[in-house]
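**Protein of interest**
===
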Amino acid sequence: MNKIVHSLSKKSQGINCRPYFAEIIGTYFLVFFGTAAVTIAVLLGILSGILQVGILWGIGLTLGIFAAAPHSGAHLNPAITIAMYIFNKDLSFLKVIGYICSQMIGAILAGLSVLIIFSPFITRFEILNKITRGEPGSELTAMLFGEYFPNPDVIPHDKAIDLMSSFSALGIEAFGTAVLAFVIFMCTDPKGMIAKTNFLAPILIGLTLTLLITLFGGLTQAGWNPARDFGPRLVAYFAGWDSIAIPGPNGGFWIYILGPIIGAPIGGLIYQKILKN
């Protein structure tokens, strides 16, 4: 009997939940600060351009990495977790599932926070602009949570279909995520120059996100992260945006899941096979 109790005690002590909580908190920082930036830009006009939005996204990512890195490695992105699993033999499949679930929880909580904090302003904006939530045209407020192509704040919904196909949006999401993953693999390479510092990698990764959002945010809103998109998108779905949130116009929500999952391993592969020391 004592052996059984001792065995169960050892197993319980061996379960370390801290990495999963770290992924929740880190992803929350990323998604909350980023979606809040989009929200104040669209609803209040406080930010003057997409560069400022991108900077706040980058700061959110940097803070999330600093918070989570000592405990989980700060993936904060299912696509990055999958890429790390492909190239890192120390990452188990069960941990991958746990990380992705944690990232989704963090993203959903961030979306809920934005909805609760800014709900009166969202309603006011919809009234002033004669937007009916869940109807065509409500992408302009749904984009505060999930993402759309092209950016509804740049191109009206009735003209969007003529400017960008689903295939084009998928390619942009895959490309941007590949670039981001390449930089992440570069910054976390133990033999590289950047990983030898304790502070440079999170800053460079955050700046990369800022750059990518500034360049591509007007096209696809620059997702690069399935949790960042789908977590808040779920919140929008249940908050009344219905089919505008999921499946989205032309059923396009899957692009923000598949694109990053395709792109991240490509970026990791390029670094691992060509440039890794």
Observations:
- Residues 93-128 form the longest helix (36 residues).
- DSSP finds eleven helices and no strands in the chain.
- Residues 57 and 156 are 24 Å apart (CA to CA).
- The chain has one domain: 17-275.
